């Protein structure tokens, strides 16, 4: 057989149509801005080759092309690696743009390569973990560059992207550019296993209108034959083309390897062996160069390779030249060498003996310790760990964590810190080591909280505190207790925070570092405020504020100012202006998390003052700020999402509210709270979700607020089954959990009681007469619990007044239905009129509609058919708008349904229903629709039933026909 020189095809084979499509998507073909593109394809299928051709076309058109690569660093990820590379390219091509952007966005300089050196990060201030300023800086950089020429950004191998890079991409995809900026992100589709972190974000990205997804398929057999001819030159000279076609399976990289291996006596079937055939053509020096490069990862700088290889320059250059000629390595313009394909580098590294790997990593450690400018702290930590050099791995891991934190990469920072903690915890402790460990736990916890994992941060601090020796200094305990207190404010509710705070203050030594004292006092002041110890809270807060200002810790000072502004010792109306000032103070110094907390408190103050629209707008702006600044799951950003979602639910914008529950990438600890909100809306539309709600009970201990939404779902589901015992059990379980979490006078009591009594009313008509007195006794108990005063220094606002009126009316209705001590008609009508009136003042669209239905039932029974019909018409209008099928069904039972309309209009369907009708008309099944829209099949079924009812259709085919006739479907 003939011997072939390794090469890549000069011509782009079999990809003309793909290139045309991709160029059209990004706007090159039509000289327009185009869409962002997610380029998917299997490993080796030709994504990089296609992007290289796309880059050539873009440059020819006058576009600025910026390329960033994600690398497989395993658990030693460096935050924002591809964008660091892109920043370097902009600095080289457009230095004046970088200078201009850095003047207004100083955070940009944190990503500059020269700033990312060992010991170069200062994370003393928690605000260093704020990614928002950095995200805005990168957005501004691309925007400013686009003012010079259209910008095409290529991010390759996103399956290896770190979490911070993925979050930054989300930010860039969701925040429009004024100038012509287009992103193309490639990834290996075959690498995305079910738990791969990129999967959920891909699902989120593909739902954005600005993002297109393009899958690069395999080459056809004919294209493979053409590619073989291009690579081999003369395939007819004894070359088995069909063998390559059969074995390559349309994968361009495999075609190249099979052609290259054609000179071997026998072609191996295993891919790794196939790749290693290429190495047999190298001499000993070139093989040593390639082996050394494989231990670095996919790429390595010329300086670092020279330092590690141990070869003189002449020998190194000869080895490199041979490896490049054999298409094993390729060189980049920035002085880096990388394997032509990641699979090739992996095969070389896997072929090394264990001892060879360790020795190579040891040499990388020695070289990086001499001069880290040839690498980075994350790389040094990785090499040291693999070399068994734990002390260097610890030192470099901490530095890598500091670097990631300073750059605004909290996920990567927490990962590096936790690896360092594991190294420290695995050896005997000196006092210095233990202090180092405590400091690391504080750093790791700060990073976890910023990334939205407050529950894990609290557990980490508690575990480390409980593992301290009995004679450990009080300073260490106080530091770890401070973290536990701070994280308990976020989401974890199983901490007896008042007792913990008092213990921490008692442990704090008089000579504690001022920053430790300031941070603990700030947390202590918040605890005291929560427990209404206002004078003590004011004293602790003022001391913390003075220390923070003296130390120049503007973020901590802003946080304390938010605590003092929201003092619960004053009427809520008096909080509003001080909280506005606290928001402004935090925003001025760029303290994102204190700003979000102050905004949340301001929203609650506005809500308590019955300024509901202002409160909703405040929560919306806080939620959007958290998303824009790249911390959607951090404390208070997530609270703002929940509060805004609740407002949308109240005012009847259910589709918008449901959209907020489709939160891909949400930390597991936060998911139950959002899920309970989704279940509440789905049940309102008729879905049977009681069992799903009950499965959320274990989460109550961690986030008791989940119970306030999931318990009503359980209660109503039990009523639908006719299970009065299930109603009472769910109510009692919810009250017990909420009392333990929120105290005796928790504000949701009246609402929970009203929902429970209303659910019992649903079951009473089917109960035997002999059981009804026992049930009304339970009703009286629940009414009495819900009517208790709300506390010594609080009063009901509009929401509380509405639910109290509803509770009173439901209690009377229960006795009326049971026939036990029934109220007279006038009293019953008056109670339900009050419920309607109060829900008109507190504009909860769904609950107002239900109050009108109940009043209509009472009026109809009393003979006032006209009055009942007027209320029913208003309720029906609301139920149709919401898609609230149970409410509409109840109206049909009431007997006030008007004649079927023959002239429907598009506004009869909600936006979601219109979307589903179009898919029904396209012949999609409920399961297919659910997968496409990322909702459950049950939910789709409920929507389809609503659509049939609204259109007066007997089935899906008729609904599609009516939809086309009325112009609801194209």
UniProtKB/TrEMBL annotation:
<dbReference type="Pfam" id="PF13191">
    <property type="entry name" value="AAA_16"/>
</dbReference>
<dbReference type="InterPro" id="IPR016032">
    <property type="entry name" value="Sig_transdc_resp-reg_C-effctor"/>
</dbReference>
<dbReference type="GO" id="GO:0004016">
    <property type="term" value="F:adenylate cyclase activity"/>
</dbReference>
<dbReference type="InterPro" id="IPR041664">
    <property type="entry name" value="AAA_16"/>
</dbReference>
<dbReference type="InterPro" id="IPR011990">
    <property type="entry name" value="TPR-like_helical_dom_sf"/>
</dbReference>
<dbReference type="GO" id="GO:0005737">
    <property type="term" value="C:cytoplasm"/>
</dbReference>
<keyword id="KW-0067">ATP-binding</keyword>
<dbReference type="GO" id="GO:0006355">
    <property type="term" value="P:regulation of DNA-templated transcription"/>
</dbReference>
<dbReference type="GO" id="GO:0005524">
    <property type="term" value="F:ATP binding"/>
</dbReference>
<dbReference type="InterPro" id="IPR027417">
    <property type="entry name" value="P-loop_NTPase"/>
</dbReference>
<dbReference type="InterPro" id="IPR036388">
    <property type="entry name" value="WH-like_DNA-bd_sf"/>
</dbReference>
<dbReference type="GO" id="GO:0003677">
    <property type="term" value="F:DNA binding"/>
</dbReference>
<protein>
    <submittedName>
        <fullName>Regulatory LuxR family protein</fullName>
    </submittedName>
</protein>
<keyword id="KW-0547">Nucleotide-binding</keyword>
<dbReference type="InterPro" id="IPR000792">
    <property type="entry name" value="Tscrpt_reg_LuxR_C"/>
</dbReference>
<feature type="domain" description="HTH luxR-type">
    <location>
        <begin position="902"/>
        <end position="967"/>
    </location>
</feature>
<dbReference type="Pfam" id="PF00196">
    <property type="entry name" value="GerE"/>
</dbReference>
